[in-house]
DNA sequence: GTGAATGCAAACTCTTTGCATGACT
DNA sequence: AGTCATGCAAAGAGTTTGCATTCAC
């Protein structure tokens, strides 16, 4: 699929932002940004690297990771949690409590919460999607009380 | 922290379920379940393995992974996605669209959706939590239209 | 010319798998 | 006794890091 108008906008925006923030404009960065814009939503570093190789680029995977880290720091890309990855588990009783998690960006502390309105919104939402939804994860991120006080 | 009543209940329940499903009752499994019950919510395989070693157990990490897989299959533990792990990225424009993802359990297809009611619920929820929330991820899982038809 | 950014390769972390040994039923 | 489950160790996937080289400024 060709890049959409929005993705072109984003690529330009990202390149401009890098320049205005004093980062050097290199071919690898431009290529990574272009691929990111073209592939759209929810792309892994691995997929970007593969796409670069397919295009005959000599950009290495280390640069992909470094550039993603930079783009994330500048909030030019958002890191999303889709599934897989570092798995965490918790005991589950049949019909037991249903809760989600808040993770502290600073210290990594994980707390649990429950919210009926949230569940209701997800249930209603599930009805209007084409997918047959059978599970959901919600993760909030921010600063925990301890780290807030330490500011 | 000592095991709570609930976690003891869960450990017993899990052991009973394994037995009733014909799985052998082994020391490693019992230890893993005990650790899982004690550590509570959101534990990684790595943390379980570390705790086992700390306790002087000879249980290897392969058994931890195999037991977690088994427990997940029996729905005795729930796999939760907290963050980290396989990172996926997407272009982000400042003030750009805000959306979440539905992942097909069968084919891995990722689709995006937006839902105002969901966002509203999360915003309201954020206000009553002690954390200073600055981001959130919502991931739904189920079967995509294509895979549903293929049933 | 100088320092930032790159590519390569090695190191690391987490997870999975093969296989011989050991333990539950 | 039979076979399920284990531990070990090796292999695999994804990511990070050190270092010499290259390239943008």
Largest sheet of chain A: 3 strands, mixed
Largest interface: A-B, 75 and 76 residues
CATH class of the largest domain in chain A: Mainly Alpha
Shape of chain A: globular
Instruction: Give the full name of the CATH homologous superfamily of the largest domain in chain A.
Output: Winged helix-like DNA-binding domain superfamily/Winged helix DNA-binding domain
Uncertain parts of chain A: none
C-alpha-based Rg of chain A, rounded: 19 Å
Termini of chain A, distance in Å?
46 Å
- Spell the H/E element sequence of chain A: HHEHHEEEEHEH
The strand order across the widest sheet of chain A is 5-4-6
Which whole number gives the mean pLDDT of chain A? 87
Strand-residue fraction of chain A?
15-25%
Task: Describe this protein's structure.
The structure is a homodimer of 151-residue chains. Chain A folds into two domains: 1-93, Arc Repressor Mutant, subunit A (Orthogonal Bundle); 99-151, Ferric-uptake regulator, C-terminal dimerisarion domain (Dna Ligase, domain 1). The mean pLDDT of chain A is 87. In chain A, strands 5-4-6 form a three-stranded mixed beta sheet. Chain A has six helices and six strands; from the N terminus they run ααβααββββαβα. The first copy, chain A, has helices spanning 5-20, 27-39, 45-54, 61-73, 116-128, 145-149, and strands at 43-44, 77-80, 88-91, 100-104, 110-113, 132-143. Chain A is α+β, with helices and mostly antiparallel strands. Chains A and B meet through α1, β1, α4, β2 and β3 of A and α1, β1, α4, β2 and β3 of B.
């Amino acid at each position: 699929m060709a890049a959409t108008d929005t993705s072109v906008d984003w690529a330009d925006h990202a390149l401009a932002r890098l320049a205005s923030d004093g980062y050097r404009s290199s071919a690898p960065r431009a290529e990574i940004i272009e691929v990111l814009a073209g592939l759209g939503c929810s792309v892994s570093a691995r997929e970007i690297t593969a796409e670069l190789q397919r295009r005959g680029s000599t950009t290495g995977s280390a640069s992909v990771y470094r550039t993603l880290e930079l783009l994330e720091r500048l909030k030019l890309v958002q890191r999303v949690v889709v599934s897989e990855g570092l798995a965490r588990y918790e005991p589950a009783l049949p019909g037991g409590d249903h809760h989600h998690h808040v993770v502290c960006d600073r210290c990594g502390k994980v707390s649990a919460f429950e919210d009926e309105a949230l569940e209701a919104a997800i249930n209603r939402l599930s009805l209007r999607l084409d997918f047959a939804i059978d599970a959901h994860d919600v993760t909030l991120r921010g600063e925990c009380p301890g780290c807030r006080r330490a500011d």
